[in-house]
């Protein structure tokens, strides 16, 4: 304003304006020998003000627009309205523009953006800004920013930003978002500019909300054989001893089974238990269970969701043949303290979420423990009176949104199990992992992540007998991984995902040492093993048309065993044994002495037959460089892991899948078929010595495998009665053939694997009687698993021996079980400290004596068959949960 007064004092010019237009911003400049017109142009350059100088020395200021003294050529000619393409980030939509524009004028607030400049008239300008929550100031993602009457609009990004192209002049802009009252403004735009919208929250009472996002995703995405399970999915399903378990829920879905009741590990589409990559926030979890497989190893209240990939495995994942179980933990609340607590018959667990920085950072802490010794002592078996079994696990996660473009999270986890079924042996095993992830938004189309994680699994056996043969035995595996991953949205037709990863393995195969000075056990330590696994990967999600979509990717895996190591060389014309060694190669520390690897293809396609029906197909091939050493039917806490080397090749698999998927009004249906071929599958000779064996390759057999099947899933998502029915028919067969009789099983023909169960049926139902009361039940039927039976006896050299059948020629009885539960929710008052939840369940309602295994003993000169069962009677339980 002082500049204007100075001009008036020194010249004959007089200014006309509204004082509210002038800001308090100071400007200090010297002007000499300059025209008033040039001075004003410089003063108002970065403002919304224009000026007009009349012939009688009056200077009229205008806000945003300009005053013209002459009409442009052709202004009075008839003008036709033209169609223009819509703006950035949306498909083309016709809009009208011209010197005369028809536009609705509302009673909303009017906002002027930029100012009109002299020169050639520009018809379109870019408006950008953010949509924010009026109460919290947080960005609102996926909000619609629409220009009314012109059918033009965009959607805000995850950071709440938008960018839209408007016609010059008046535009009525409306913002709407789920759960908000929206916003409406008259925007008069003269040049490119910025405008933020604030939207207030809007709460409306609804009778019922049905979320169908996953059902739509099942139809529209390109993946086959993949399932997402939310943590709440396990809330109402009756499970043994009342403990929530998303991994147990997974076994009720087609294609995922276990070897038996209480068995740890999973068999996915005919694969072995070691062929599953189980991840917690990107770090490997080697043993996912507690208490002999009855409980999952992760606090259920800390889990956000579980993604299972058993068909279309993304290119970013490798190292396992059958599946990926991707477990994601919750992000802690950054607004207020939250928590959840559960008290059951054998376990208690709690999770608390603590805000560290308001709306930016939070810390989740979870702990769980078992007080289960009383269960063993309560059983009517004197041999179990001195037994013990307990476990614990802890989890902590820190999540921090540094700003709109940068986020970081850190997860730590530790667990331990201790059990002793006999009076002389104490077993304990531990998981530990640490995972750090940093996400950065590089641009509107590109983002990147850096992931660093470390995992460790170990077990120990303490044997304390009555003679001088006491010992301590242990095993340990560590792995450390670094991965960088990028996502790039080229356009609507191409979405790239690419990166590189490297992983270092360190394995202590086993050691044994005497417990005391008088113990006669000789100390032994198997030399440590090391290996490097690396990979490059890239995939492109390609939209060919509205109906056809492809997901094509390739992963190149590289593996090398690292010294120090001693590798035996065996005669090729004789089976591997101590007597057929011809040489020993010695490798120094960090020598790369044996490499494997190759390309892994990942391809899937989806074709939409109509809006609710699609057909999908996929193919992938995979490498696995690490193997478990076990001759048990199921996972054991004392199983050890072995790295591929000069004598043990990596396992390989190729899988084809084909499926049809349909959504009806209340139902989701899918029917998938698969065929899987495997090479270098590991198995073992009969009576193999697997622990503390420095030359384990003499006990290992490697051969072929094949699996095929059909999976049916019918899911009801709506209504008071909901749930799913899953049925799988599948076969899993192995072939161990060799030119040497000692390395041949069942005459070199295909035979059923230990977990081959052709028929697998699951029915899970939940009936909501009222908002507070519901009934749940599940029924499971499975074909009995294969076993090897003695079929006779014979005498040799004066001794009597048992003659066994071909491997896995017979089956134990079929398995079936019915579980029921009553679920009672607390009241639904809005203002209360905590929400409670009771679950009263009965496991194995029918009291079915399902055999876990069949074994044979010799009594009084006769061989008798006996069976062992885990739960042969109904098991009631009651669990109390409350959430605040």
Automatic annotation (TrEMBL):
All residue ranges annotated as the TonB-dependent receptor-like beta-barrel domain in the record: 381-845
Localization annotation: Cell outer membrane
Pfam families reported in the protein's UniProt record: CarbopepD_reg_2, Plug, TonB_dep_Rec_b-barrel
Keyword list, A-Z: Cell outer membrane, Membrane, Receptor, Signal, TonB box, Transmembrane, Transmembrane beta strand, Transport
SUPFAM superfamilies in UniProt: Carboxypeptidase regulatory domain-like, Porins
Ranges where the TonB-dependent receptor plug domain occurs: 243-320
One Gene Ontology molecular-function label: siderophore uptake transmembrane transporter activity
GO cellular component: cell outer membrane
Family under the similarity heading: Belongs to the TonB-dependent receptor family.
Keyword Disulfide bond: no
Record-linked InterPro entries: Beta-barrel_TonB, Beta-barrel_TonB_sf, CarboxyPept-like_regulatory, Plug_dom, Plug_dom_sf, TonB-dep_rcpt-like
Membrane topology: Multi-pass membrane protein
Protein name: TonB-dependent receptor
GO biological process: siderophore transmembrane transport
């Amino acid at each position: 304003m002082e500049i204007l007064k100075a001009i008036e004092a020194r010249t004959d010019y007089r200014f006309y304006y509204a004082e509210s237009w002038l800001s308090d911003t100071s400007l200090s400049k010297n002007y000499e020998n300059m025209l008033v017109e040039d001075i004003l142009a410089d003063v108002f350059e970065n403002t919304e003000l224009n000026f007009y100088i009349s012939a009688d020395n009056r200077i009229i200021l205008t806000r945003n627009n300009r005053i013209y003294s002459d009409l442009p050529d052709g202004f009075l000619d008839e003008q036709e309205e033209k169609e223009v393409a819509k703006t950035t980030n949306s498909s083309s939509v016709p809009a009208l523009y011209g010197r005369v524009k028809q536009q609705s004028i509302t009673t909303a607030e009017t906002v002027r953006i930029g100012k009109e400049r002299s020169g050639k008239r520009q018809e379109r300008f870019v408006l950008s800004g953010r949509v924010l929550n009026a109460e919290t100031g947080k960005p609102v993602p996926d909000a619609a920013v629409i220009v009314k009457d012109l059918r033009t609009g965009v959607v805000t990004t995850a950071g709440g930003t938008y960018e839209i192209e408007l016609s010059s002049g008046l535009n009525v802009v409306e913002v709407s978002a789920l759960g908000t009252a929206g916003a409406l403004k008259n925007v008069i735009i003269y040049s490119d500019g910025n405008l933020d919208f604030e939207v207030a929250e809007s709460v409306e009472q609804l009778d019922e909300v049905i979320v169908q996002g996953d059902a739509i995703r099942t139809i529209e995405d390109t993946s086959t054989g993949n399932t997402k399970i939310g943590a709440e999915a396990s809330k109402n399903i009756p499970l043994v001893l009342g403990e929530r378990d998303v991994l147990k829920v997974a076994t009720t879905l087609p294609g995922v089974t276990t070897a038996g009741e209480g068995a740890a590990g999973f068999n996915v589409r005919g694969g072995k238990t070691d062929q599953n990559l189980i991840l917690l926030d990107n770090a490997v979890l080697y043993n996912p269970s507690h208490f002999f497989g009855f409980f999952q190893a992760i606090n259920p209240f800390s889990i956000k969701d579980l993604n299972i990939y058993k068909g279309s495995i993304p290119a970013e994942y490798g190292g396992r043949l059958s599946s990926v179980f991707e477990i994601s933990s919750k992000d802690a609340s950054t607004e207020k303290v939250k928590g959840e607590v559960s008290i059951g018959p054998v376990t208690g667990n709690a999770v608390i979420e603590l805000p560290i920085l308001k709306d930016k950072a939070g810390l989740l802490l979870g702990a769980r423990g078992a007080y289960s010794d009383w269960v063993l002592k309560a059983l009517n078996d004197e041999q179990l009176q001195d037994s013990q079994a307990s476990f614990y696990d802890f989890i902590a996660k820190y999540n921090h949104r540094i700003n709109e473009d940068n986020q970081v999270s850190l997860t730590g986890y530790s667990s331990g199990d201790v059990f002793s079924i006999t009076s002389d042996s104490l077993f304990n095993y531990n998981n530990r992992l640490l995972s750090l992830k940093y996400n950065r938004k590089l641009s509107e189309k590109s983002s990147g992540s850096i992931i660093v994680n470390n995992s460790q699994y170990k077990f120990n056996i303490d044997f304390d007998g009555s003679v001088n043969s006491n010992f301590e035995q242990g095993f340990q595996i560590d792995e450390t991984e670094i991965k960088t991953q990028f996502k790039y949205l080229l356009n609507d037709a191409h979405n790239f995902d690419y990166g590189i990863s490297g992983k270092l393995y360190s394995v202590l195969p086993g050691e044994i040492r005497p417990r005391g000075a008088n113990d006669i056990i000789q100390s032994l330590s198997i030399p440590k093993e090391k290996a490097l696994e690396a990979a490059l990967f890239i995939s492109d999600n390609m939209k060919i048309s509205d109906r056809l979509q492809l997901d094509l990717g390739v992963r190149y895996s590289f593996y090398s065993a690292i010294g120090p190591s001693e590798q035996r060389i065996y005669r090729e014309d004789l089976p591997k044994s101590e007597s057929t060694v011809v040489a020993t190669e010695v490798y120094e520390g960090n020598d790369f002495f044996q490499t494997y690897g190759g390309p892994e293809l990942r391809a899937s396609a989806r074709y939409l037959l109509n809006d609710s029906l699609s057909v999908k197909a996929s193919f992938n091939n995979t490498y696995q460089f690490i193997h478990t050493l076990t001759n048990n039917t199921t996972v054991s806490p004392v199983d050890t892991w072995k790295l591929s080397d000069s004598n043990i090749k990596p396992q390989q698999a190729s899988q084809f899948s084909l499926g049809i998927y349909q959504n009806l009004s209340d139902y989701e249906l899918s029917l998938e078929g698969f065929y899987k071929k495997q090479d270098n599958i590991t198995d073992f000779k009969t009576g193999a010595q697997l622990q503390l064996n420095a030359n384990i390759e003499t006990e290992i057999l490697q051969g072929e495998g094949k699996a095929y099947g059909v999976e049916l899933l019918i899911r009801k998502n709506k209504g008071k009665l909901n749930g799913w029915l899953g049925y799988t028919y599948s076969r899993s067969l192995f072939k161990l053939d060799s030119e040497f009789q000692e390395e041949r099983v069942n005459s070199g023909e295909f035979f059923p694997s230990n977990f081959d169960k052709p028929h697998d049926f699951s029915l899970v139902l939940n009936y909501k009687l009222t908002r507070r009361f519901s009934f749940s039940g599940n029924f499971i039927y499975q074909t009995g698993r294969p076993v090897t039976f003695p079929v006779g006896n014979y005498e040799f050299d004066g001794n009597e021996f048992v003659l066994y059948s071909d491997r896995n020629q017979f089956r134990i009885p079929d398995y079936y079980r019915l579980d029921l539960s009553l679920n009672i929710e607390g009241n639904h008052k809005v203002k209360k400290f905590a929400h409670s939840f009771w679950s009263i369940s009965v496991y194995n309602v029918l009291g079915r004596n399902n055999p876990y295994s069949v074994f044979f003993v010799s009594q009084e000169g006769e061989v008798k068959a006996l069976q062992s069962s885990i739960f042969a009677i109904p098991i009631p339980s009651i669990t109390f949960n409350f959430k605040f």
